[in-house]
Design brief:
The complex is a heterotrimer of chains A (about 90), B (about 375) and C (about 210).
Chain A lengths: L2 H15 L25 H15 L9 H4 L3 H11 L2
Helix pairs in contact in A: 1-4
Chain B lengths: L3 E9 L6 H9 L6 E3 L8 E4 L3 H11 L8 H16 L9 E6 L23 H12 L6 E3 L5 H14 L5 E8 L3 H9 L20 E2 L1 E8 L5 E10 L12 H11 L9 E3 L6 H13 L6 E3 L2 H4 L6 H15 L1 E2 L15 E2 L4 E2 L4 E7 L4 E9 L1
Parallel strand pairs in B: 3-7, 4-5, 4-6, 10-11, 10-15, 11-13
Antiparallel strand pairs in B: 1-8, 1-9, 2-3, 6-8, 9-16, 12-14, 15-16
Chain C lengths: L3 E10 L2 E4 L2 E5 L6 H11 L12 H14 L4 H5 L4 E7 L4 H10 L10 H4 L6 H9 L6 E5 L5 H14 L4 E10 L2 E11 L11 E2 L2 H9 L1
Helix pairs in contact in C: 1-2, 2-6, 7-8
Classes of the chains: A mainly alpha (about 90), B alpha/beta (about 375), C alpha+beta (about 210).
Chain lengths: ~90, ~375, ~210
């Protein structure tokens, strides 16, 4: 898969896993912050993203504090997946 | 609110089957926490679990019944029977109420092959409560309180209110929960479990341990050495699983509880102290806002783990034993202050004249509940 | 003898929302609860994306409160730390419990979800209502076999007598698969018993049962 495909697939998975009703992939800016502003995700969403990475991509986050950089944006998540996916 | 008396209590826990035995174990520095393996976890989990075979022996010797009971029901029946043995009274009359405080009740019925002869129906809390009621022949259906981790304190508070309002003369409050893959895996998904014994209020705290216990209190309109002076609850109205960063709900509850008792400085605080980063930080802010930061404070989660529905009742009973014995129990697991507002955490066993304590609790759903209890 | 009144009752059953006896919104009975809830969300113009992260029990609770909020003045009454939330049901959080239990039933495909687990407590519906409506008063969640007007009545009256609480949203929010229903109503302590309360019912067990059985 190329980077764009990873990003599009990830957007769809996040919308589903986090129950982001009425948000479509085209409405999500890949570089916008996921937390705080942007999509405005919260602490439970952060935990769900960890589950998503493990379940869909087999990637375990060893230390949730590492999560901050990985989950900065869709782009940073995609970078992590491309870099580490087996 | 009229002062209402606490007549007796009982604890069923890994540290013993009476309040006195439990207190003695804590004085000796014993902890119920140990390492256990679970099939779903690659690494061992630190928890405080009841010894099932010892429980069976105790149960068979004290409870006569041909019925089948779940693990949880056995601990509840045992605990109530122990109270009735020590403080017999006409518990079948219409002036008596049983309040059950639990977060998940017989949730292990949802797991395959746990019980072959017990109907799935008993997973419903009212059916579980009715089973207990029928065994002792209580007049009224039980009041069942399920308010996350504040359930225990809530149940004691409501017992006090109902007696105060002359709805009942005697109330037995039972707080209970068991640990199963259901709760363990849930807290694990929250990244909330510590693999080692937990460290409430400590700089290096990394999460909770879960624990099993059933604790019962007999509360009455009769005169007693131990009195519930006041209590209240308040909601943060902030987040369903994270406590308010400004401790709004806890501070409001403390204020309401002390409204009629502004002149009282509690001799110690039995905090919720779960050892998560956020709870303990929130409590430090709440206590500091109330100007209680110098008051000796402990959490008992370092001995029992977080016993969920039982916690509020169990920890209140231990605090009452502290009052009776004039002994402060140290906060196990604490070494280095780790909250932005420094508290006066009890670090060693101390003999001290004690008259009052504040019990606090906070839980998922944003609830906070507090009690002020006094010894004459 | 009670010095309190009862008003603004909202029931939700069989895809229909009723406020004070009048049907205000209805969806076709062929729609699932999820579909009905989404339509009701738009009917109320809720504008609260968190709604879609909630489980069915919390969605039902939220919609019930939106119903009573349509009555003029209710928003101001409940936005106070002297307003309590006293809710009840039979099934606790059984739907979310079963989803969570299923997610951990297979060791090979073991992925418990934190957003499911957080809803495996019945008082979360109370928490969601408190957050949305900024309600920082007393809370209580009770479990019973069926709707118990007496228990709600005694709890409310006791709270009014023993604390500074003077208002309460009381109710029954029950969700168990295809069997679901809700009733919420407001009770208020009246300072002057001689005060005329033309449009309000006296707070009694009988009146509460009338609301449930309507």
């Amino acid at each position: 898969m190329n980077e764009n495909e990873v990003i599009e697939k990830l957007k769809a998975q996040i919308i589903e896993q986090l129950n982001l009703e009425e948000i479509t992939p085209d409405k999500i800016d890949s570089n916008a912050p996921l937390f705080g502003d942007g999509l405005g995700l919260d602490s439970i969403d952060a935990l769900e993203l960890i589950v998503l990475l493990e379940r869909q991509y087999g990637l375990k986050i060893a230390d949730p504090k590492d999560g901050k950089d990985i989950f900065k944006s869709i782009q940073s998540m995609a970078d992590f997946i491309i870099k580490n996916k087996k | 609110m009229n002062s209402i008396g606490i007549i007796g209590s009982n604890i069923i826990s890994p540290l013993g089957n009476s309040s006195e035995a439990n207190f003695e174990a804590l004085v000796k520095g014993k902890s119920g926490l140990s390492s256990f393996s679970f099939p779903f976890s690659d690494s061992p989990i630190c928890a405080s679990l009841l010894d099932q075979s010892l429980l069976e022996i105790e149960f068979s010797s004290r409870i006569k019944s041909t019925k089948e009971f779940t693990r949880l029901e056995k601990t509840v029946l045992l605990s109530i029977q122990n109270i009735l043995n020590k403080h017999p009274f006409d518990h079948k009359n219409k002036n008596t109420l049983l309040i059950l405080a639990t977060t998940k009740g017989n949730i292990d019925l949802l797991e395959k092959n746990n019980y072959t002869n017990i109907p799935m129906e008993r997973v419903y809390l009212s059916a579980f409560a009715e089973t207990i009621r029928n065994h002792f022949d209580f007049h009224h259906p039980c009041m069942v309180v399920s308010n996350a981790c504040v359930s225990g304190v809530m149940a004691i508070l409501w017992a006090q209110r109902l007696i105060s309002n002359k709805e009942y003369s005697n109330v037995i409050v039972v707080g209970t929960d068991l640990i199963s893959p259901f709760t363990l895996s849930g807290f694990k998904s929250f990244n909330a479990l510590s693999p080692e014994p937990c460290r409430p209020f400590d700089k290096n705290r990394i999460g909770i341990n879960l624990g099993e216990a059933t604790a019962s209190i007999l509360i009455s309109n009769k005169e007693s050495e131990i009195k519930i002076l006041a209590g209240s609850s308040a909601n943060d109205a902030n987040h369903i699983s994270g406590p308010s960063r400004t401790a709004e709900g806890l501070f409001m509850s403390i204020n309401k509880t002390f409204e009629q008792h502004k002149n009282i400085q509690p001799d110690f605080i039995s905090a919720h102290g779960t050892a998560t980063e956020f709870n303990d930080e929130m409590e430090s802010i709440g206590f500091s806002k109330a100007e209680f930061q110098k008051i000796p404070t402990h959490s008992l989660k370092g001995y029992y783990g977080h016993t969920l529905g039982a916690a509020g009742v169990l920890e209140t009973i231990i605090a009452i034993e502290s009052l009776k014995n004039n002994i402060l129990i140290p906060s196990r697991g604490f070494e280095i202050p780790g909250t932005s507002k420094e508290l006066n955490i009890i670090t060693k066993l101390e003999k001290k004249t004690l008259s009052t304590f504040l019990k606090t609790s906070s839980g998922f759903g944003g609830s906070n509940a507090t009690l002020l209890i006094e010894k004459n | 003898m009670t010095n309190s009144i009862l008003h603004s009752a909202c029931t939700i059953r069989e895809n229909k929302i009723t406020l004070n006896g009048e049907a205000i919104f209805e969806s076709d009975l062929t729609k699932t609860f999820s579909e009905f809830a989404k339509e009701a969300y738009h009917y109320f113009d809720l504008n609260y994306p968190k709604f879609f992260k909630m489980d069915n029990l919390s969605k039902l609770g939220m919609l019930s409160i939106e119903g009573i909020l349509l009555t003029q003045g209710v928003r101001n009454i409940i936005n106070s730390d002297k307003c309590a939330l006293i809710l009840s049901n039979h099934s606790s959080s059984i739907e979310s419990d079963k989803i969570h239990a299923k997610s951990i039933s297979n060791l090979v495909n073991f992925f418990p979800s934190p957003s499911v687990f957080v809803y495996t407590l019945p008082n979360i519906v109370l928490g969601e209502i408190a957050i949305k409506n900024k309600m920082q008063g007393e809370n209580l969640f009770l479990l019973s076999e069926k709707f118990e007007a007496k228990q709600l009545f005694i709890s409310t009256e006791t709270l009014f007598e023993t604390s500074s609480t003077n208002t309460a949203i009381c109710g029954w929010i029950e969700f168990d698969g295809n069997k679901w229903e809700s009733l919420v109503y407001i009770t208020q302590k009246i300072e002057d018993p001689n005060q005329k309360n033309g449009n309000f019912m006296p707070h009694t067990i009988q009146e509460i049962n009338k609301l449930y059985n309507a």
